[in-house]
Amino acid sequence: MQMNLTGQRVAVLGAARGIGRAISEExxxxxCLVYGFDRELDPAAPADGPVMTVGDATSFExxxxxxxxxxxxxxxxxxxxxxxxxxxxxxxxxxPGDWPRVLELxxxxxxxxxxxxAPILAAKGRGTLLFLVSVAGQxxxxxxxxxxxxxxGLINFMQCAAKDLAPxxxxxxxxxxxxxxxDLNESVWRAGQERLAPEERxxxxxxxxxxxxxxxxxxxxxxxxxxAAMAVFLASEHARNVTGQTVNIDGGQVMHS
Length: 257
Ligand SMILES: NC(=O)c1ccc[n+]([C@@H]2O[C@H](COP(=O)([O-])OP(=O)(O)OC[C@H]3O[C@@H](n4cnc5c(N)ncnc54)[C@H](O)[C@@H]3O)[C@@H](O)[C@H]2O)c1
Hints:
Elements: E1 9-13, H1 18-29, E2 33-38, E3 51-54, H2 60-70, E4 75-78, H3 99-124, E5 127-132, H4 145-165, E6 170-177, H5 183-193, H6 204-215, H7 224-235, E7 246-249
Parallel strand pairs: 1-2, 1-4, 2-3, 4-5, 5-6, 6-7
């Protein structure tokens, strides 16, 4: 299938590592001009990667300056996500004071990106906006309540943005991972282990393998490349009738009846 994205301009927030990096590289392979934004660069990143801007997405000024520097844009992909670093089950293991920062890192950062780029996309009269969310935002996930609530909020905001931007020819969707081997996923494992006695602790591979067998009907890890393939498809004209959707790539972990 031809995606026909050659020469299009793509902004990826959270592009330095993990899923955002894989998405950036896939758009580059499609012949796009990719502009990345991240709070830190990966010194081992290849020289032919995206043009990177260092900034903190909790700052609307920094995200806005990035949007202005990119100028006209066809597609925006928001891939930032950060856990609380604590195991939040039952939820009172966390304090109310743990919430604001996690909501800021996962929800307000996305709102900043939407505010910075929506006027640019609307003025162009076409394009797409894609948010990485999580299975945790679609169920009462017993791992990290403020992270889950932020992702649920982001799914709702995505639908609102999809309705607002539809008259301008701009499509807005969400892509929802389950279990992917990245820094973020490893931080969830680490937070869970810290509460256990030494003899109960598991290495990352054992923990992940057991969790996937328990929660995912297909029973295997998802990979960053699977999100990259879907991100490129959703940006293409093949998806011209897809907006306001949460696309789960999670081995069947979330199924809405
Ligand atoms: N890995 C998983 O299992 C999993 C599961 C469900 C959802 N997700 C979601 O997928 C998306 C990508 O996650 P990932 O696993 O690739 O994580 P990751 O930790 O590998 O990458 C996240 C990137 O965001 C950047 N970032 C974090 N805070 C930032 C800030 N304030 N400003 C600018 N950049 C910032 C990091 O530097 C990093 O490059 C996230 O939205 C995450 O919530 C991941």
